[in-house]
Amino acid sequence: MTNVALVSGRNGVIKKCEANGHAGFSKKGGDIVCSAITILLRTAMQTLSQTPTATVSADTSSRGKLAFLVELDNGNPMVESRAKGVSDFLRNGLKSLSKEFPEHVLFEETTI
């Protein structure tokens, strides 16, 4: 099972995301559930890292782990709006996967 933990602020913007494990839907290297999780996380991370005044630091130190931290200049409403959109996209995608594949994806979100 892949465990995905998302930490967001009260405004709904991602502060931290971490995914660990293998979904176990199919063999490693050909697992569509793992692939879907990876695509969602990598796209969100890359989009946030291309956002002006946003700093993203990632940990991909081992296979089956992807984690990133996001720091924003919250004084800029356009930056916050873009980050909120990316956060909503990621949150909705992960919720959808966890509902469709509950034995393979555990999604948890904490708001701080």
Could you characterize the architecture of this molecule?
The protein has 112 residues and is of the alpha+beta class. 38% of the residues lie in helices and 29% in strands. The protein has helices at residues 32-49, 77-100; strands at 2-8, 14-20, 55-59, 65-71, 105-111. A 5-stranded mixed β-sheet has the order 3-4-2-1-5, with helices on one face. The radius of gyration is 14 Å and the shape is elongated. 29% of the residues are buried. The model has no long low-confidence stretch (mean pLDDT 92).
Defining traits:
alpha+beta; 2 helices; 112 residues; 29% strand; five-stranded mixed β-sheet
Question: Could you write a compact summary of the structure shown?
Answer:
With 112 residues, the protein is of the alpha+beta class. The chain has helices at 32-49, 77-100; strands at residues 2-8, 14-20, 55-59, 65-71, 105-111. Strands 3-4-2-1-5 form a 5-stranded mixed beta sheet, covered by helices on one side.
**What is the alpha-carbon Rg in Å?**
14 Å
Task: Determine the mean pLDDT.
Answer: 92
What structural class should be given to the helix and strand makeup? alpha+beta
The string of secondary-structure elements, in order, is: EEHEEHE
Question: Termini, distance in Å?
Answer: 26 Å
Q: Largest beta sheet, briefly?
A: 5 strands, mixed
The total count of strands amounts to 5
In the sheet with the most strands, the strands line up as 3-4-2-1-5
Spans of at least 5 consecutive residues whose pLDDT stays below 50 are: none
Helix content: 25-40%
